[in-house]
Design brief:
This protein has eleven helices and two strands; from the N terminus they run αααααββαααααα. The N and C termini lie far apart (64 Å). Helices cover 72% and strands 3% of the residues. It is globular, with a radius of gyration of 18 Å. The protein is mainly alpha-helical and 224 residues long. A hairpin with a 2-residue loop joins strand 1 and strand 2. Helix 2 packs parallel to helix 4 and helix 5 packs antiparallel against helix 9.
């Protein structure tokens, strides 16, 4: 008999999911979408999928609420980056997101993976995240907002990098909205079989989409 205690992440996952079976599922989705954008480890997709499957005709309302709450939480994360990077911000990055920080040019920064700097070279703008912000800006927010990469990491660091706030908000709305609306619509049209497919392949599909998107713009840049 296996008596091993589930990990804290697994227990949080189950806690998030249990709200789908209560009258407070929608409220919980809004709150979780908000806090996930700055510190909470479980993405709102878990509860969003359960709620859409339980009420398919409300898929658009659920996706809309999830998007707005997530972006609002992103603005809160941006504020942490602006006002509390040296205290709360760095603690979240190192202890919750589990990304190591290293001193660069007088402030703590994040080293990019070696494979990324090797693949993209000088086009990145540097080997550290804040250097890349100077070149790519909103693209970083869009990629983190759309893919399984931790959105909280980019909301906080965008504040540190002083990315233009309206640009940050608009990019977040587009990226988070695309993610949540696509997932919700697929569940609405296909139902339970889509959930298994999304659970299994969502990470791969979003990463492939981003690679193709960036590749397309790189080709256009070479042409023009």
């Amino acid at each position: 008999m296996n008596t091993e205690k589930p990990s804290i992440v697994r227990r949080l996952y189950d806690w998030v999911l249990h709200w789908a079976d209560t009258p407070y599922g929608f409220t919980a989705l809004v709150l979780i979408s908000f806090v996930e954008s700055s510190f909470f480890p479980i993405p709102p997709d878990v509860l969003l999928m359960a709620l859409v499957l339980a009420a398919p005709t409300k898929w658009a309302k659920i996706a809309f609420a999830c998007t707005l709450a997530s972006v609002a939480g992103g603005v809160a994360g941006y504020g942490i980056g602006v006002l509390a990077w040296d205290t709360m911000g760095m603690w979240i990055v190192e202890n919750l997101v589990r990304v190591p920080l290293t001193p660069v040019d007088g402030r703590m920064d994040i080293a990019l993976p070696a494979y990324m700097t090797k693949m993209f070279g000088d086009s990145l703008g540097g080997s550290y995240l804040f250097q890349v912000y100077d070149t790519w800006g909103a693209w970083i927010v869009g990629i983190f907002g759309l893919t399984p990469l931790p959105y909280k990491l980019v909301t906080i660091t965008a504040g540190v990098a002083q990315l233009n706030l309206p640009v940050f908000i608009i990019t977040s709305i587009v990226a988070r909205g695309f993610r949540f609306f696509v997932v919700s619509y697929i569940l609405f049209k296909v139902g339970e079989p889509a959930k298994a497919f999304i659970d299994k392949h969502f990470n791969k599909l979003t990463i492939i989409f981003v690679v193709l998107l960036i590749g397309g713009f790189a080709v256009l840049k070479l042409i023009f």
